[in-house]
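User: I'm curious whether this sequence folds into something compact or stays loose and floppy. Could you predict its structure so I can see for myself?
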Amino acid sequence: MKKILVVLTAILSIFTVSFVVKAILVKLHGSAPPYQVEDLYPPSNPFDWIENWERPNVPAKVALQAGHWKNNELPSELERLIGRTGSSGGGKSEWEVNLDIAGKTAQILESEGIDTEILPATIPPRYWADVFVAIHADGSLDMTKRGFKAATPRRDYSDGAEKLMSFIEDSYADQTGFEKDPNVTRNMRGYYAFAWWRYNHALHPRTASVILETGFLSNAQDRKIIVDNAELAAYGIAEGIIDYLQSQNLIQ
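Assistant: Here's the prediction. I'll summarize afterward.
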C-alpha cells in the first residue's frame, strides 16, 4: 500500500509541475504556445526536438525581414515593441529603407531561382527557412558615425549562422565600400525574432539567422548607398546569401 501511495504521489507531482510550467508559459506568451510543455522540456533531453529535427526535402528557402515594417501589427506578446519605429534620416523612416532593400534583395535571389519571402515585423510562429536575414538601418545623434554591422543569435542551434554572417559581411563590404562597425549590441544578439524559447512569434531554432544593420540613416554618406543606391546594398546581401547556400549544397 505504501508503495502505491509513493507512486501516486510521484505522478501527482509530475502533473503539478507540468501545470505550473504551462501556466508560466501562457503568462509569458499571452496565450498558450503552439507546442506542448513536454516538447519543450521532454524527460530525457530538453533539446531532443531540436537535435532530432531534419530539414524538409524542399528547395532552398530564404526569408528577409524588413525591420519595423508593419510594426503596429505585432501580437500582444510583443506589444512592448509597438511604436518603436526605428531610425530616420534624409526624409525616410527606417522601415521604408529596410523594405526597399529587402525587396531589391528578393528580386536578385528570385532571379537565381531561390524561393524568397519578405516578412514584416511579425514572425509566423516557429518559422523556418534555410536563411533568415533581418534588415535594419542604424541611427545615432552623432552624425559622423557610419558603417554596417551584423550579429547572429545568442543561442544558435542552426550550425550555420556564423558562416552565413561571414559571407554576408564580406560581400556587403565589397559592394558598398562600408567598413564594419564592431559595436554589436546585446539587443542585436538577443533580437526578438531569434528568441524561440521566449516567444510564439519567433524563428525555428534550426534557421540560420543574421540581423544586419545596413548603415546609418543619420549619416549622409551612408544614405548615398542605403537610400539613393539601395541596389548595391541588396547585391551585397544577396551575394552573401547565395555564397552560403552554395556552401551548404542547397543550390548549384
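Summary: Confidence is low (pLDDT under 50) at residues 1-43. The first strand starts at residue 61 and ends at 66.
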